[in-house]
Amino acid sequence: MNADQWLADTRASYDTVAVSYAYQLRETLAGAPYLRAALALFADLVHAAGGGPVADVGCGPGHVTAHLHELGVDTFGIDLSAAMIDVARRDHPNLRFEVGSMTDLNLADTSVAGLLAFWSLIHVPDEAVPTVFAHFHRVLRPGGPLLLGFHVGNEARLKTQGYGGHPMNVHVHRRQPDQVAAWLRNAGFNVEANMVIDPGKSVPGAVLFARRQP
């Protein structure tokens, strides 16, 4: 798949659904105790590593960014969709949000103390994941924690509608934790833990903790 095309499709799709997406997700974490626990652990790991700025890459409307801020993390959000960033800035005016792509992160080397990508890798095709993980490794400080959340499965499907019935044109990739972990190790990360959430559902979720090697 052409990189410019899938990025353009993802950007346009989330620009279209930004307001509806934010409305539907505003209470998501309240009903997700395991995700809250994962975020609390991630916050503890950031603090234990000495603290510092944390990038929420693919932040969407900023609800996870804000949750981490409430946990005492100096977090900021980055998203491909300018409309999503507008919504995030509207809903969380005290936090920093900027437009950017995880395929070409505009962050200095070793500039962040932690990084998370919470269900934002799901639109990145397999062939682009190593590039994304190379950027994550580049911008993280040695020893900095990484938290990923993603759909579990073995396929990709085309999503043509969502979040209020608006048209979309994005592929949603479902992956096995072992595959994601292998990509991370190849990029220079130590994989420390992973957890599958709702394993009995048709599309389980997974969270994976890793750390940039010193």
Word description of this protein:
The protein has about 210 residues and is an alpha/beta fold. The chain has one domain (about 5-210): 3-Layer(aba) Sandwich (Rossmann fold). Helix content is about 35%, strand content about 25%. It contains six helices and nine strands. It has helices at about 5-25, 35-50, 65-70, 80-90, 130-140, 175-185; strands at about 55, 75-80, 95-100, 115-120, 145-150, 155-160, 165-175, 190-195, 205-210. Helix 1 (about 5-25) runs parallel beside helix 4 (about 80-90). The longest helix is centred in the N-terminal third of the chain and has 23 residues, at about 5-25. The chain is globular and about 45 Å long. It starts with a helix and ends with a strand.
Radius of gyration: 16 Å
Largest sheet: 7 strands, mixed
Q: Care to count the β-strands?
A: 9
- The helix fraction, in percent, is 25-40%
CATH topology: Rossmann fold
Order of helices and strands: HHEHEHEEHEEEHEE
Q: Termini separation (Å)? A: 34 Å
Structural class: alpha/beta
- Taken from the alpha-carbon principal axes, the silhouette is globular
CATH-defined superfamily: Vaccinia Virus protein VP39
CATH architecture call: 3-Layer(aba) Sandwich
How many helices in DSSP terms? 6
Strand percentage lies at 25-35%
**Strand arrangement, major sheet:** 3-2-1-4-5-9-8
Number of domains: 1
Task: Please state the average pLDDT score.
Answer: 94
Could you name the CATH class? Alpha Beta
- Report low-confidence residues grouped into runs of 5 or more: none
